[in-house]
C-alpha cells in the first residue's frame, strides 16, 4: 500500500473515533463508528491472502451488524422519547439493545467469536490497532450512556467475558489469539465496573492500552507470532525479553506491577456494593488468564531455544 493511501486511511481511522467520542447526537456517533470500520477494512486486507480477506469480511459483517443495532436502538429511543441525545437514553428496551450492540462491537462474550479469528488473520501491527484503538469509540459510548445501561446485563457480560477470555486462552499457541482472549478478559473487567464507578473503568482502559501497546510493540520487534517464536527473543535481545516478561506479568495482574491496581480497585468496589460472589468469580477467572501469561513469560525468559524445543533459529 502506498504511503499516501496509508496516511489517508489512518487519518480516517483517527477521525472516526474522534467524531464518535465528541458527538452528542446518535447519528454523528454512528457516522464515526462507520468511518472507523470502513477505514480499517483495507488495513486488515493488505496481505492479499485468503486468511486476511476472511478476517476483513468477518470484521466488516460484525461491525456493520453492531452499528446497525446501535442505530436501531437510538431510533427506538428517539421515537419514544423524542430526543437524539446520547446522554438521554431513557427507554428501557433501547438500552438493552444498545448494551448488546456495544458488546458485539467490543467483542465481549458471548459475542466474542469474531475477535480471535480477525486478529489471527491479520498482521501483528493490524492486530495491535484492533486490540487498542478500535476499543476507544465503543468504550466512549459506554461511558456516555453509563447511567442508563442495565447494570445486570453489564455485570453478566463482564463475568462471562472474563471467564471465557481466561478459559479459551489456555490452549492457544498463537500470540495474536492469546492477545485476543486477553483483550476479551480485560474488557470483561471494564464492563463489570462500568455501571458502578466510571473513573475506575477509564483507569482500567488506560492501563490496558499502555500494557497492550508495550506487549504488541515487543512482539512486533521480535517477530514472535507463536509461543515457540517468543523463545528466541531472549537470545536476540535480553532487554526486550525483560520488558516482555514485566509487561506479561503486569497484564496478568501480579501485585507489585501496574496491572494489579485496576483489578484491586474493581474487586474492592464490587465488595463494597455487596457483590462479593461476583468479585470471587472475577478473581478466580483472573487466575486462568494468569496461567497463559505465565506460560508465555516462561518461554520468553527462562528457556533458550535449542535446549527445549525442536525449532529453527530466526536467522
Automatic annotation (TrEMBL):
Belongs to the complex I subunit 2 family. One of its GO terms (biological process) is mitochondrial electron transport, NADH to ubiquinone. The keyword Chloroplast does not apply. Keywords: Electron transport, Membrane, Mitochondrion, Mitochondrion inner membrane, NAD, Respiratory chain, Translocase, Transmembrane, Transmembrane helix, Transport, Ubiquinone. Its main location: mitochondrion. It comes from Anolis cristatellus. Core subunit of the mitochondrial membrane respiratory chain NADH dehydrogenase (Complex I) which catalyzes electron transfer from NADH through the respiratory chain, using ubiquinone as an electron acceptor. Essential for the catalytic activity and assembly of complex I. Residues 290-315 form the NADH dehydrogenase subunit 2 C-terminal domain. This is NADH-ubiquinone oxidoreductase chain 2. The chain crosses the membrane at residues 59-76, 96-115, 152-171, 178-196, 202-222, 234-255, 275-294. Its EC number is 7.1.1.2. Coiled coil: none annotated. It is a multi-pass membrane protein. Residues 25-288 form the NADH:quinone oxidoreductase/Mrp antiporter transmembrane domain. It catalyses: a ubiquinone + NADH + 5 H(+)(in) = a ubiquinol + NAD(+) + 4 H(+)(out). It comes from the Eukaryota. One of its GO terms (molecular function) is NADH dehydrogenase (ubiquinone) activity. It is found in: Mitochondrion inner membrane. GO terms for cellular component: mitochondrial inner membrane. InterPro entries: Complex_I_Subunit_2, NADH_DH_su2_C, NADH_UbQ_OxRdtase_chain2, ND/Mrp_TM. The keyword Nucleotide-binding does not apply. Pfam families: NADH_dehy_S2_C, Proton_antipo_M.
Amino acid at each position: 500500500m502506498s504511503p499516501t493511501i496509508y496516511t489517508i486511511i489512518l487519518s480516517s481511522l483517527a477521525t472516526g473515533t474522534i467524531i464518535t467520542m465528541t458527538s452528542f447526537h446518535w447519528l454523528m456517533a454512528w457516522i464515526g463508528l462507520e468511518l472507523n470500520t470502513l477505514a480499517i477494512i483495507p488495513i486488515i486486507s493488505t496481505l492479499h491472502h485468503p486468511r486476511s480477506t476472511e478476517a476483513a469480511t468477518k470484521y466488516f459483517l460484525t461491525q456493520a451488524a453492531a452499528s446497525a443495532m446501535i442505530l436501531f436502538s437510538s431510533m427506538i429511543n428517539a421515537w419514544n422519547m423524542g430526543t437524539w441525545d446520547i446522554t438521554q437514553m431513557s427507554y428501557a428496551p433501547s438500552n438493552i439493545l444498545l448494551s448488546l450492540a456495544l458488546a458485539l462491537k467490543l467483542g465481549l462474550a458471548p459475542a466474542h467469536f469474531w475477535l480471535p479469528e480477525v486478529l489471527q488473520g491479520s498482521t501483528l501491527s493490524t492486530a495491535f490497532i484492533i486490540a487498542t484503538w478500535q476499543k476507544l469509540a465503543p468504550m466512549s459510548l459506554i461511558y456516555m450512556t453509563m447511567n442508563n445501561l442495565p447494570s445486570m446485563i453489564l455485570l453478566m457480560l463482564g463475568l462471562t467475558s472474563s471467564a471465557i477470555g481466561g478459559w479459551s486462552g489456555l490452549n492457544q499457541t498463537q500470540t495474536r489469539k492469546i492477545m485476543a482472549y486477553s483483550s476479551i478478559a480485560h474488557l470483561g473487567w471494564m464492563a463489570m465496573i462500568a455501571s458502578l464507578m466510571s473513573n475506575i473503568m477509564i483507569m482500567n482502559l488506560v492501563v490496558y492500552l499502555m500494557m497492550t501497546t508495550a506487549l504488541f510493540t515487543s512482539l512486533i520487534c521480535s517477530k514472535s507470532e507463536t509461543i515457540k517464536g517468543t523463545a528466541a527473543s531472549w537470545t536476540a535481545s535480553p532487554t526486550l525479553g525483560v520488558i516482555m516478561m514485566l509487561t506479561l506479568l503486569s497484564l496478568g495482574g501480579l501485585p507489585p506491577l501496574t496491572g494489579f491496581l485496576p483489578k484491586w480497585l474493581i474487586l474492592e468496589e464490587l465488595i463494597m456494593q455487596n457483590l462479593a460472589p461476583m468479585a470471587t468469580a472475577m478473581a478466580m477467572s483472573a487466575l486462568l488468564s494468569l496461567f497463559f501469561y505465565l506460560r508465555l513469560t516462561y518461554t520468553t525468559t527462562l528457556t533458550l531455544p535449542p535446549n527445549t524445543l525442536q525449532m529453527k533459529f530466526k536467522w
